[in-house]
Specification:
With 263 residues, this protein is of the alpha/beta class. It is built from 7 helices and 7 strands, in the order βαβαβαβαβαβααβ. The chain has a single domain, classed as 3-Layer(aba) Sandwich (Rossmann fold), CATH 3.40.50.
């Protein structure tokens, strides 16, 4: 029988985009299950308050500033995270921003920033943290992607392109890591109730919604809670050694309708 190393008892986890939404919920779920957590995001005040709550409850947590649009910030974060709480064993690449950009006529600078934040910055961080996992022979990397990869939305060209690239990057990394003891997987959320998109103006929303309706992208008003995705991430990194969850797509369940006929 092939042998696989067990997960270490103490698994330090890095979570990016940890100041709100899926990232903040993931930090909570991992901490609740005994994992020391390193929180990374731009809003350091939120991170420090969150880390303090975890420490007050008896957990281990460190907050570090991270701006994925700034390569020097990524370098500094990776350097500090590597020694903050001991060897890292879990990396959750979650940070992302949705900017309402079109592919035709959209501002190329904004488009490039979306690619940098949602894709290029994520690759830089994994390039810095991943070798440590390979050297120790175990660990999990999780990329939070989006169902826009398989169900694109209009007026989100930068985000769609970046998340499609992120899934391609993960597929390549999965091949690179085969036989190293390190697993890489994707959690692909559907429509979620987070802060993403809340900075869009009312005018933008009213303009975009008819386009989404035209393409059948608003079937119901159900939305995932951040905790739903955090639990999926926990399941991925907690899978027994010897197997790996390479892709988990999580979609919101539709509210129950009065007419429940399926015919």
């Amino acid at each position: 029988m092939p042998k696989f190393p067990d997960h270490p008892e103490r698994r330090v986890a890095v979570v990016t985009g940890a100041s709100s939404g899926i990232g903040a919920a993931t930090v909570d779920v991992l901490a609740e299950h005994g994992h020391p957590v390193i929180l990374g995001a731009r809003r350091l005040d939120r991170l420090e308050a969150h880390a303090e709550r975890i420490r007050a409850a008896g957990g281990e947590a460190v907050a570090l500033p991270l701006d994925l649009t700034d390569p020097s910030s990524i370098d500094a974060f990776a350097d500090k995270a590597a020694t903050a709480l001991g060897p890292i064993d879990i990396v959750v690449s979650n940070a992302g921003v949705v900017d309402p950009i079109t592919g035709v006529g959209g501002d190329p600078t904004r488009f490039a920033r979306s690619i940098q934040l949602n894709l290029v910055g994520a690759q830089q961080l994994i390039a810095l943290l991943g070798p440590q996992l390979v050297e120790q022979g175990h660990g999990d990397i999780v990329f939070v992607t989006s169902d826009v990869v398989v169900r694109p939305r209009t007026h989100m060209a930068g985000y769609v392109a970046a998340k499609a690239g992120l899934e391609g990057l993960c597929r390549a990394i999965q091949m690179e890591l085969e036989g190293t003891g390190v697993r890489a997987g994707m959690v692909r959320p559907g429509p979620s109730s987070t802060e993403q998109g809340t900075d869009w103006s009312e005018e933008t929303i009213l303009h975009v919604m008819p386009h989404w309706e035209r393409w059948g992208l608003l079937r119901h008003n159900g939305a995932l809670l951040p905790r739903n995705l955090a639990e999926a991430i926990l399941a991925m990194v907690s899978a027994p050694k010897g197997c790996q969850l390479t892709l988990v797509e999580v979609e919101p369940e539709a509210p129950i309708q009065e007419n429940r006929s399926t015919s």
